[in-house]
Design brief:
By secondary structure, the chain is an alpha+beta fold. Helix content is 44%, strand content 16%. α4 runs antiparallel to α5, α6 runs antiparallel to α7 and α7 crosses α8. It is globular and about 75 Å long.
Length: 296
């Protein structure tokens, strides 16, 4: 008796990789300063305990981080973060208040807790100082705060959120381009007309960048006449509102940026520092984590 039943071809058995146990394992776990808020849907797989596993960088990551163009446009940082923190599915969407904590965690996982940083003091004395990055990470977590509401008047409340890494990178590129234009105005080979044209162009770009940053930070506006989260409505409002309203929103965003930025470390002046001519009992160590040098 003939049958029409067909059986699928047998699938080859994939052998387990005997090297799996020798591959990277999570080095540390961190909580996000934002506690997972402000992340777009699908961009973060936040575990129930809210702790993200952080792996060390691979050799490929270290090569990626040294490609100037990829570093400038942010793609290198995105690739490294997604490879080292698997729970982050779209690093472009990282709220900026979480970015420093994530980068510091990757640095700790790759190179350890201590980081040497060059410091220039007021008397132009330079020296290397060892920073304990776990202390910095704890400081970020302890000081993190986001106050999303801005009361403009009894009739209006504006709601703001942190910029995403993509928005912040775009703003940085605009600022870089503006600085290049301003530098051109110092070129003695240009005519006065050309310098004036370049100055006007740079001023326009700077204004557009400032206004664009404020627009991107607003996600809702409630008024006595109704509420809107429509990006175009918000854009139209910011571009046509009075100076006092704009300044109030910008000042609040500046306050939040400062509140969530890494503060200088206050340290005791050591005997070594005194021998270099540094006076006083304490001194400030500024902490600047530039991605172009942070992982070198």
């Amino acid at each position: 008796m003939q049958t029409n039943v067909q059986f699928p071809p047998s699938q080859p058995v994939v052998a387990a990789n005997p090297l799996s146990m020798f591959m990277r394992q999570p080095k540390i776990y961190i909580r996000l300063p934002s506690k997972g808020e402000f992340w777009p849907a699908g961009s973060l797989a936040l575990p129930e305990n809210q702790q993200l596993a952080v792996y060390s960088m691979t050799a490929k990551d270290e090569l990626t981080i040294n490609i100037p163009d990829a570093l400038m446009n942010g793609q290198a940082i995105v690739d490294v973060i997604q490879n080292c923190v698997p729970a982050i599915k779209n690093a472009w969407a990282i709220p900026t208040m979480d970015l420093d904590a994530i980068l510091i965690a990757i640095r700790i996982a790759t190179y350890g807790e201590m980081m040497k940083t060059p410091v220039t003091f007021k008397n132009d004395v330079e020296m290397d100082y060892q920073i304990d990055l776990r202390t910095v990470l704890d400081s970020i977590m302890n000081n993190a705060v986001w106050e999303p509401t801005i009361s403009i008047s009894p009739e209006m409340t504006v709601f703001v959120r942190p910029l995403t890494y993509k928005q912040a990178t775009s703003a940085s590129l605009q600022s870089f381009e503006t600085q290049k234009i301003i530098q051109l105005t110092n070129n003695d080979q240009l005519t006065e007309e050309e310098k004036i044209r370049l100055f006007k162009e740079s001023f326009k770009k700077l204004s557009e960048s400032t206004v664009g940053t404020v627009i991107s930070s607003i996600f809702r506006i409630d008024t006595s006449n109704g509420s809107t989260d429509n990006p175009q409505h918000i854009k139209d409002f910011i571009e046509n509102t009075d100076k006092d309203t704009f300044n109030k929103i910008e000042a609040h965003l500046d306050y939040l940026k400062d509140r969530n930025s890494i503060k200088p470390m206050i340290i005791q002046v050591s005997d070594e520092m005194k021998e270099l001519g540094i006076t006083g009992d304490t001194v400030e160590i500024p902490l600047v984590f530039d991605a172009s040098t942070f992982f070198v």
